[in-house]
What does this fold into?
Amino acid sequence: MDLNGKVAVVTGSGRGLGRAYAEALAAAGACVVVNDVDAEVVDAAVAAITEAGGKAAGAVAAVGDSEAAELLTETAVREFGRLDVLVTNAGILRDRVLWKMTDDDFDAVVKVHLRGTFTCARAAAVRMREQGEGGRIVLISSPAGQRGNFGQTNYAAAKAGIVAMARTWAMELSRAGITVNAVVPVAATEMTKTVPAFGPVIEEAERTGAPLPDWLRKDEGLGTVEDVASLITFLASDGSKDVTGQAIGIGGDRLALWSHPAEKAVAFADGGWSADTIAEQWHEGVGAEPETYGIPAPKAPEA
It folds into this structure.
């Protein structure tokens, strides 16, 4: 992939998946704006990219408000002259079950993930439309947004909203040549280490330098952050110019296209449905095969 001449902003790219995205884009030739709330982390990521022969600049900001979004776009234009790619990766967690989740827990996560994606994409879209040469917007979602996840009301809702925004913006920005896609990543990070079935295996691989086992890479679709970064590079490239409005999963050895919500079963009743007729026919009719929900619990193979 050749991204020479392209300029990318990656939010939340000081560490973890975001840093892997920034480094992969820079390795492919793009100039990258690294963003995080921690100045030291930003400086370290920028230094790593430049020492590897890439071009990068830093922007310290907490994603969410319009001011932060404008700062990121302005940094790209000031440092590198334009903006071609936006990757909205910044996020936080405030996990609690519904009856224990506070207003602040909910609002903080939604502000960074959902509102931050909106404000950054809006600023990027304005700039890309002014340039008149198209662009690439890549929104980072999650399996939790596709299926729900215990204790993650705020996070799952925000990530589901991000996929909905990708589909909407793909329509709105198509005439400007700007593609918009959502990525659903699964990778070995500090968060996935907290999953009992994953944690010991990931830590052992990090300690020994051995690759993650096949059951994790294939069955669970979980690999390294670099595995995910390859999809980001593709979606930032000219090779993806006809890919838009999609939710694409990647992790380990698995690449997947998530389906859009669609009617699964339909029934009709002349004159409409009463509560009684719905109850009488539900289990043999449209409700005969209810949908599953929640992320399936991972199962390590027996020794």
Notes: The chain has a mean pLDDT of 95. Residues 7-187+224-257 form a domain with the Rossmann fold fold (CATH 3.40.50.720). The chain has ten helices and eight strands. Residues 17 and 281 are 47 Å apart (CA to CA).
